Amino acid sequence: MTTIDHAGPLAVSEPGALTADRVARRALQVARRTALGVLGDREAAADVAQEVAITAVRRAGSLRDPAALDAWLHRIAVRAALREARRAGRRREAERAGHDPPPPGDDALGGALALLDGLPSRQRAALTLRYVHDLPDAAIARALRCRPGTVRSLLSRGREAVRTRLEEPA
Amino acid sequence: MKTTDHDLLERLAPLRELEPTDEEIAALLAQADELRAPRRAPRRPARAVALVAATAAVIGALAALPGGKDGAGPQDAHGILQAAAAVAAEQPAPTPYRYTRMLSRFVDGVRAGDERGRVTYEQTSENWTSDGFRGRTVAPRGTITWASPPSAALAAAGGDAAALVKAYDGDYRYGDGPLARVPFDALPEDPTALAALLEAAIRDGRWMLHRGERPRWAPGVVDELITRSAVTLLSMGNLTSGQRAALFQLLASRPGARPLGEATDAIGRRGVGVELAGLQVIIDPKTSDILQSREVLAPPPEKAPHFDGPHRPPWPPPVWLAERTEVFLSTGSVAALGDRPQ
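ok -> structure tokens follow
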């Protein structure tokens, strides 16, 4: 069962406030949302989120600036998700057919994932970072390792694709 | 209609609502602690207990994931393999030989002109391995079954089929793969160190049958071989419980593992399935034994791939491996070559 809580970015105001528990919670939160947005596959996203969160817990101690936690988490989560998306793509290509990702599902989450279904991974990542994590262009650019102009272009094409999808007859 | 920021914020809101539970956090911290724990050479019961506790927490948490099934055990590949590691850690210490009775099944696709056929080879063998892939294999003559009676041309294209299933009694036959000479006692019980050792050994070819060979691997092949080597070691190696646990943990950390859910092997035993580097592996959750591994290969492409060497093989090939299955009918620890488990 998933609890629902509209938690915003983690507010880390004091040095040393990065307890393992807080890092784990925030890392799972960020990584799961990001991985689901990019991959659309709940099982694969759970695996990626787990991997990212463990990395975060083990390496958070090396962060000099606790306030940088969120930016760092976005970066490692989006990269892990894009890496898995590439692997999944290669796997599907190698297997040729019959191993498409599972359908998004009929629940509210499935509806959200269906909206992103089929978009290129980096567009999905940009849309997720903007409309799920509420990040500005510069932060998305840092996470995706590209220029803010590229982010604006990814977002624009992503919005256009979603618009087309929404206009399609049901 | 213009898609506004507000539309997208609203429609993607369900993604923002994904929140980890306290149980998931506890499981994650337990797992991170376990991975961070310093390597200890001797096996300690406490370590196994901690691993079991961590895995139990992971199982509980995984059941709560979206798409999970409450009470049905771990649903993702990572959880399944961590659970197997916990069970493996509690298995008794090995005796001088590991015994494995195995059914090997190969399915070949065969082509002769426009004709196509499929032929299945089956052979059961008994195997004993000691401190490495050394020991003995005894296998009576196997069977050859065509899906439909072959024409003379197809049978000829299939090659010397009888040689593939002839009776055998001799040295343990692992072949010339990357683990041909692996000394089992050199395998660490720490999953990270074990993965590093396997990777180094595969890259430099130190365990290949022909010493001094330094193979050149295509991109991605080493990763695949690490996974496959771990499965081979779990299936046939005479290993300590700590080494087996580490191998499952290594597999849990590999990318691309996929759960296959509850699965039944070729002789009707039920287990839990995981796909690893193209291998469909069924694990007995009670013992952590590998019950079966199977792979189904895509047929060769119609267009010939690029070859660098001077000898271009005929294309399309007359015979190709379509499917390979190994069913581990019986496994156990025995005191001497030729003994069988009770």
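Chain A touches chain B through 56 residues (CB under 8 Å).
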